[in-house]
Amino acid sequence: MTLPLIVAKSLRQHLLSTVVTAASIALAGGLLMAVWVVKTQSNDAFTKQNAGFDAVLGARSAKLQLVLNAIFHLEASPGNLPWADYEDISTNAAVALALPIAVGDNYHGYRLVGTTTNLFAVEHRPGRKFRVAEGEPFLAGYMEAVLGSFAAQQLKLKVGDKFHPFHGLIFDEKQQHAETYVVTGILEPSNTPADRVIWIPLEGIQNMKGHDAKSAAEISAVLVKLKNPIAGRGLELMYNKQGNRLTFAWPIAQVVAELFGKIAWFDRVLALVAWLVAAVATGSVLASIYNSMNERRRDIAILRALGARAHTIFLAVVMECAAIAVLGMVAAFAVYLGITTVAAGIIRAETGVVLEPFAWQPIFAWVPLTMIGLSALAGVVPALKAYRTNVAENLVPVS
Amino acid sequence: MPLLEVSNLKKSYAAPDGGTHVVVDVPDFKLVAQAQVALSGESGSGKTTFLNLIAGILAPDTGSIKLNGQELAGLRESARDRIRATTIGYIFQTFNLLQGYTALENVLLGMSFGPGADREFAKALLKRVGLEAKLNHLPRQLSTGQQQRVAVARALANRPKLVLADEPTGNLDHTNAGESLKLIREACRENGAALLLVSHDREVLGQFESVQELAKLNRAAMQPT
Ligand SMILES: Nc1ncnc2c1ncn2[C@@H]1O[C@H](COP(=O)(O)OP(=O)(O)OP(=O)(O)O)[C@@H](O)[C@H]1O
Ligand SMILES: [Mg+2]
Prior knowledge:
- The structure holds two protein chains of two kinds.
- By secondary structure, chain A is of the alpha+beta class.
- Chain A contains 13 helices and 15 strands.
- Chain A has helices at residues 2-13, 15-48, 63-70, 83-90, 149-155, 202-207, 232-242, 252-262, 264-291, 293-305, 310-351, 363-387, 391-394, and strands spanning 55-59, 81-82, 95-107, 110-115, 123-125, 128-129, 132-135, 144-147, 162-163, 166-167, 181-187, 198-201, 218-219, 221-226, 246-249.
- In chain A, strands 1, 3, 4, 7, 8, 9, 10, 11, 12, 14 and 15 form an eleven-stranded mixed beta sheet that branches. A two-stranded antiparallel ribbon of chain A has the order 2-13. Chain A has a two-stranded antiparallel sheet with strand order 5-6.
- Chain B has a domain at 4-18 and 27-95 and 161-222: Rossmann fold (3-Layer(aba) Sandwich), CATH 3.40.50.
- Chain B is globular.
- Chain B starts with a strand and ends with a helix.
- The interface between A and B is medium-sized, with 26 and 32 residues.
């Protein structure tokens, strides 16, 4: 009972440095957890993310660009391919489902993607199809749109609303098309990039006024679901090795993993920064306690005169440093939630991929344990000074 | 058997000129249980050093200190700490109250390292010194005389066999000093503790039946410095 009292009193007596050092621990701990969770969860979410497809067929290009454009609805389309290629692959014996898409327009930054009603047959997760939650699917050949849930929410569009699309993938208010589309339905949230898309019939994009006349018979890519994913090897050989006109991006997860491989240095830099902040924070615990040792000498001598053993004093100082880290780590979870909520919001808005900051991670245990352990370790330095305090010399007030 | 038995006790410090400066050289000193003895000595005669040796705060160079039948001289620091926590109460000229702790907490700390905290006894002690209304006051919220009384209560908190008092009234005015000394002596008697007080104040020394001159006990004090 005595040790906790001594520690609590000391924390209170040095309230300002307690708060400042605990805050730096909170920042460091929160940052460490946030960097780690955003990194692992986005890695996980992006590589698992395929919106229900195994491969993408598109114009000859880098596989990554093809996947980013067709699956994640990011980046520019690498070019078009003739309708005949869609017919070819959709009748291939290995293919379970082929979905042609055409891109080229947006509405306030949200992409219009032309496709067929086959979209509603796609299982984006086993047993879960893209389902219209409100209203009805679009009808082929009509100027109708089904909105992804996130796009509908952000654009504040409801079933029955009308809008004029804009030309291009990037919003430019001078590029408005004359066509009027009507919202017929809104998709159930799928937590896939499809949530950020305005889905319209394929002919809509192909025939939009001002589009290249020859594009009327072309599509941007074909999303492919295979009967057996292994069959992708044969198709890949056929399109990528034997042909030189098209690119077959397969398997999608591997293509995305390559992207993460390319930006791994960024993770490492972030992690390094987070660890440096952690080192500085524990260093600040050490420095602030060490610096206060001069004013604590008298109190230590008095406690010793009352019979406290030197190692009791040592322990009190180490515990005080650990206690600062405990207080800091409680606040660190607030810092963590702040950072990850913002990061998850941005990632969702930009990619449609959903992260879950609240999901339990082992790191929620080991970062606090590490920070508390490091602080206690840092506390050994001032604790040694406290341990060696000369009792007789410090029992008299310093004049 | 006496409560305290000191023989051939020597303590010296390194002098600035590189030699050693003998501060305490006491061939023989005894104190029986529950006795009250005052030691007189001028400033620098080694009074504080002598008390710190008995309290086990300082380790002697040579000699023997037997307290309650136990030899302190050869013991490790932690063992001396333990004996201090259980058998000695210490009253300082500057009171040495912990400024961040209330009167009650200061008294509780006086027992925490020895017999363990006993709130009821701590309150009873503060009541005995007339501070039952000031339990939760911090030292700075108390008058000098009240602070001294907290220090007296704290010195008795671990039910010591021996209370050491180093100029306990040196910081008090004339009236307060007289009352405080009376309180210390009565409280020690009531609690069965012996009292060894050091002072150079004639008035304080005059209150004691038994006064010994440190100059005579301590051969080091006679040496010209
Ligand atoms: N840590 C130390 N290092 C060196 N010399 C010391 C040390 N502590 C005390 N001394 C010396 O020992 C001598 C006795 O000191 P001490 O404090 O015991 O005297 P005192 O009788 O209590 O004096 P006062 O009445 O002024 O309190 C002094 O000459 C002092 O300079
Ligand atoms: Mg002195």
